[in-house]
Amino acid sequence: MQPPVAAVIEAHRTLERLVAGLNDQQVAEASALPGWSRGHVLAHLTDNARMFARLAEHALRGELVAGYDGGVDERNAIIEATAGRSAAEHRAQLAAHTAGLETSWALATDVDWSRPVTFRNANLAATVFARWREAWIHMVDLELGVRPDDWPEDMAAHTIGFLLSRLPAGTRVRAEDVGRQWSVGDGPPGTVVVGGVRDLAAWLAGRTPVVSPVAAEELPALGPWPPHPPQRLDRL
Asked: Where is the Mycothiol-dependent maleylpyruvate isomerase metal-binding domain positioned along the sequence (predicted)?
């Protein structure tokens, strides 16, 4: 599948506009994520771009490297170490690493997108989809005016498919505004969750929908984020 590079670049530009006027006080304020300031979210988005660029640069040479040599501990340490940057420093670093990522992607040919990477034991194309999710979901977490109803329809639909494994087997998810339905696994039909495509994506991502999805009884409890490597799920 051809990855949505142009759509992710558009998300990057939206993110840059969103943080263009941030001051140091706003960066230090709490984000929507428990225990994280806006600075933590920006640090994560910045280093996520650096990490994906690293994977891309090596993949294009036919090399497999870890996203983080030190695993999740290294990832968390980088976020903690850089969250306290000034607003200007955050903007500069985000712009630099975003540009580096886009430059790496620009070197990829159609056949390169299938090159393997260690991220989720997937391929280079999967990192583009992941960055798409990261950019839009964390823009909501910054609490600077972007809401789930600002998400592109196709990004929201992709996110639903990615997060289906958070639901019990047999659950069906129906986005009535776009006429699409997803089914979790091969079990007998279970709960049907109905809503708008963006609201369903936000709910599955653990964010607050603009309009909460509904089910005949109560909404099913969400399980953990998709495991590594991800499970294979079917979409109707």
From this structure: 10-143
Cα–Cα distance, 22 to 209 (Å, whole number): 25
Q: How far apart are CA 117 and CA 181, in angstroms?
A: 30
The residue extents of the domains of the chain are 5-146, 153-215
User: Domain 153-215 is of which CATH architecture?
Assistant: 2-Layer Sandwich (3.30)
State whether residue 153 is helix, strand or coil: helix
Place of tokens 């759509």: 7
More reliable by pLDDT, 130 or 186: 130
- Look at residue 197 in the predicted model and tell me its pLDDT: 98
**What would the CATH number be for the domain defined by 5-146?**
1.20.120.450
pLDDT-derived band at 128, boundaries 50, 70, 90: very high
The pLDDT value given to residue 229: 55
**85-110 average pLDDT score:** 98
Judge if the upstream peptide bond of residue 229 is cis by omega within 30 degrees of 0.
Answer: yes
Judge whether 203 and 182 are in contact, CB under 8 Å: no
